[in-house]
Amino acid sequence: MQLLSDIKNYQTIIAATIAALIAIIGWICIAKKNREHEEFKLRLIERFKVRKGMLDSYIAWLVEMDKVIVKYNDIDYKRDVELVDKLKRVNWLIEIYGTTDEKERMEKLAKSLAIPDNGSEIRETIKSLTKVVLNSIKFEYDLKKLN
Length: 147
Hints:
Structural class: mainly alpha
Shape: rod-shaped
Oligomer: single chain
Helix content: over 70%
Strand content: under 5%
Radius of gyration: 29 Å
Number of strands: 0
C-alpha cells in the first residue's frame, strides 16, 4: 500500500515537473517569437521609409524631367546638371533598394537616355518604370495595383 502511494506521489511530481517544463519552454518560445516579430516590424518600417525616399527622389526627378521637356521641347536631359544629379540619385536608390523589375527598367532608361533623339522610347521607358515603382510600393502597402 505504501509503495502504491509513493508511486502516485512520484507520478504527481513528474507530471507537475513536465507541465512546468512545457510552460517554461512555451514562454521562452513565445518571447523569442515576439522579439523576432518586433525586429521584423522595425525593419519593415525602415524599408517603408527608404522606399518612400526612393519614390520622393523619383518623383522629383520626373518633375524636373518634365520641366526640361517643356523648356527645350525634347529630352536632352544633359543640358541640366541638377537633373543629371537627381537621375544619378534615383539610379543609386533603385540599384540598392529596388526590385529586379525596377532595376531592369532603370537600366533600360539609362541606355535609352544615352541614345540621341530617342524621345518616344524614353517616354515609354519612364512610363513603364513609373508603373513598376508605384506597383511595387502599392504591393508593399497592400494596395490595389495599377493596370
